[in-house]
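Please review the protein record below. Tell me whether the encoded fold seems credible here:
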Amino acid sequence: MAITSGRISSTFGSYSLNQLKRFSPRTQITRHTCEEGWTAIAEWTGVPLRLVLEHAGIMPKARWVNFYSYDGWLDSIDLIDAFHPQTILAYGMNGKNLSIPHGAPVRLRLERQIGFKSMKYLEKIVVSEEYIDPGDIGWAWYNGF
């Protein structure tokens, strides 16, 4: 999967933002806990990542979901977190379309982990057997259960 020119694509399929909005949406009110010490509560709307991965199809040996952003960040999560019900590709915040400062066009919301794992400005998503080391700076990832 890759998000390029506002589209998520893969060898298995391609999804525009409008197509993502046709999946069954999930809206959740959650607290963002930043590694810098601040928190904020917001209502997020998006498509559960699980639905997109299942629709696109993933290989049986896949273990990692690797994310790449338009601003050069990369990160990885395991399939357990990718399939968690609260893990969404968010396109809305507080009842409105997601704004650029909050990660538009699509951002990952990974509620069980600390804020920096909820990557903004998603460009592409790659599901693979290989873990892509983002050069973790050592913060505790998990925020909930």
User: Anything to note?
Assistant: The chain is about 10% helix and 40% strand. The chain has a mean pLDDT of 84.
